[in-house]
Design goal:
The protein is mainly alpha-helical and 178 residues long. It folds into 2 domains: 3-104, Multidrug efflux transporter AcrB transmembrane fold (Up-down Bundle); 106-150, no CATH class. It contains 6 helices and no strands. It has helices spanning 3-18, 27-51, 61-96, 107-125, 127-140, 142-147. It is flat, with a radius of gyration of 27 Å. The model has no long low-confidence stretch (mean pLDDT 82).
Length: 178
Amino acid sequence: MVDAAIVMIDNLHKQLASAEPGQRLTRQDIIIQAMQQVGPSIFFSLVIITLAFVPVFALEGTEGRLFSPLAYTKTYAMGFAALLAITLTPALAVLLIRGKIRGQQSGLNKLLIRIYQPIVRLALRFRFWVVCLAILALIVTIPVFLKLGNEFMPPLNEGSILYMPTSAENPGNGALAK
């Protein structure tokens, strides 16, 4: 849910870091322009994720009772995240982002890039073997998939452990139960 804000702020930092000091645009104009570049894409990607849970609402029985709270929660959360990404995040960025943006010059960024680049270079150098390894990992899961069967949910045995305390007196009318 916070990925939208992270992507927007990352784009904003790149735009501010690459801005020329003598540029005519003000800092606020650069921030707004950066948010407009990625805002529509982020909004629609969050809406698509929100709509991906709609089929869960069609489940009935045990599956419906089990998964509908998750579907409602995720749908509401992602829907509000989409709205906040295009309203609150740009407003807060204009108000709160101050100071000089150094881009990738910070020590943490340099360290992470130094760790990440050799891994990517190795994967690209041996891309055939990386793809073969991924396909092999997929093939290894086929026997497990075939053993799953066609039952979506195992029986939950609802009501098998039920303790219902009862008393001899009915508190409604004060008379003993007969």
